[in-house]
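Consider the tokenized backbone below.
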């Protein structure tokens, strides 16, 4: 993914947005390379999400991108998209309310 960012940057990409969730650590060398490359590009947005309990909406876990990716203040957005019974997405929320704070898709 670091190489992808470098290639897109060389190609003149104005914005690079990942809809892949980097919420778990993988290889420390790869994670560090991705973080450095994204910080240098300064135009990358990563994906995060929140997981709410179906039984208690006050119990919410926010899954942010891994710490190296957000340590430099890089942007990340919420990518939750509720699906219908058949797995199709029919709507997209513009923001979520989390612990009385309005969370826009992009932090």
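A designed sequence for it:
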């Amino acid at each position: 993914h670091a190489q992808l960012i470098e290639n897109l940057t060389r190609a003149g990409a104005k914005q690079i947005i990942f809809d892949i969730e980097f919420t778990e650590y993988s290889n420390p060398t790869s994670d560090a390379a991705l973080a450095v490359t994204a910080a240098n590009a300064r135009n990358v947005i990563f994906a995060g999400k929140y997981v709410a309990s179906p039984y208690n909406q006050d119990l919410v876990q926010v899954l942010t991108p891994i710490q190296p990716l957000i340590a430099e203040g890089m942007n990340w957005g919420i990518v939750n998209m509720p699906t219908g019974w058949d797995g199709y997405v029919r709507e997209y929320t513009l923001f979520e309310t989390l612990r009385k704070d309005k969370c826009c898709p992009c932090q």
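The two ends are 21 Å apart (CA to CA).
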